Amino acid sequence: MLLDYKKPTVNSYTATEIMDKMGPCQNQYNATFNTTTGNVTVNADGNVYYSGNVVTNEFVWVEHTTENPSSGILGFDLRSMAGKTIVSAKLRVYLVESTGWMDFTGVVVDHINFGSSIDATDYNGGTLASNIGTISSNSAVGWKELDVTSYVQADLTEGRASSQYRFMLNGVLGACVARFEDAENTGGTGNKPQLIITYH
To answer: Span 42-199: which CATH code?
Structure first.
């Protein structure tokens, strides 16, 4: 004997209706997501030369010369993020000017820990992760960005008060320079470094 088959009714619900039906259980899933405005405080920036000179009152400056190359250094205060869950984090810097861009393949970023202040060892020291990505691969003036979600989360997990990065030229064949706007607005663009974090 064959039973009559009846196609089941499929209902659709909006997210709000689902949350309402969950009743008291809903609060454990109802996270509020927030995004910073980009103005996570820059607590250190500048550049360190191979010779040991440290300059903190000009651009985040990346330079290659035979005599005295430099690395750009940038750090952001994370204390306001303590205890938060990071959904995403983007490092954004504004390229003000560059020269010699035909001689290399871009500006790469290291995740570093230089502590509370920049010193001569930060030219290539304090590395937590090398070459986490290329933040700029062309000479166009404007904003450049890199996803640093896992590195910001690692800094928070390790209890660091700052998320810190080093900018270096990649594949250098000759003299070249890249200058990014700094927290002091040396270039006059108003486009200061940003760390944009989405969290809950």
So the answer is: 2.60.120
